[in-house]
């Protein structure tokens, strides 16, 4: 990991307008959790539903999309990435640094708020907040790799990412069970299901398959991003 690139990336991410969404989205979850707690509607079923339908299915992919595309996409669009690529820094190091920055942002703006929202609704003794936070973090690891690769490969990364996260996973995945094996959300759900004793969470994809696909998708996406970044350098040089 290159600390200079990481510093520039974090400064750029938190200094852009899109950073407002990073704060706005988790704020909605926390305010909703607090409202449910104060109104007495914070039962196990309600808490699980909020963490699942908003935290895992909405907050996680949107934050990961903002972070994954934001850490490198704008630099490619405005040509600033070429300044970094002219330095004696390996393309693998550039991608890994950008990717790790995205993962840190997902941990801070998705996993942590999900855990805190779960604690507010269900209390510190419940194992659901930790389980959901771990599931969100693992999902963020895969999502961040996919969206970082998309940002390097296409200028339409945000649009493609939204179609995948909101259409494929949230709509098609819910109504066509056979597609759930190709869903990062479902892989994350499988892991968190194993971390909680609550019967309110039921995964449909097996744990070995989920873990294997999380690893393969993450590694494959990073490899693709690195390869595409090398091609970008050669194309610019020509």
From TrEMBL:
The chain crosses the membrane at residues 51-73, 94-116, 128-150, 162-183, 203-225. It holds the Pfam family ABC2_membrane_4. Keywords: Membrane, Transmembrane, Transmembrane helix. It comes from the Bacteria. This is ABC transporter permease. It comes from Actinocorallia aurantiaca. The lineage of its organism: Bacteria, Bacillati, Actinomycetota, Actinomycetes, Streptosporangiales.
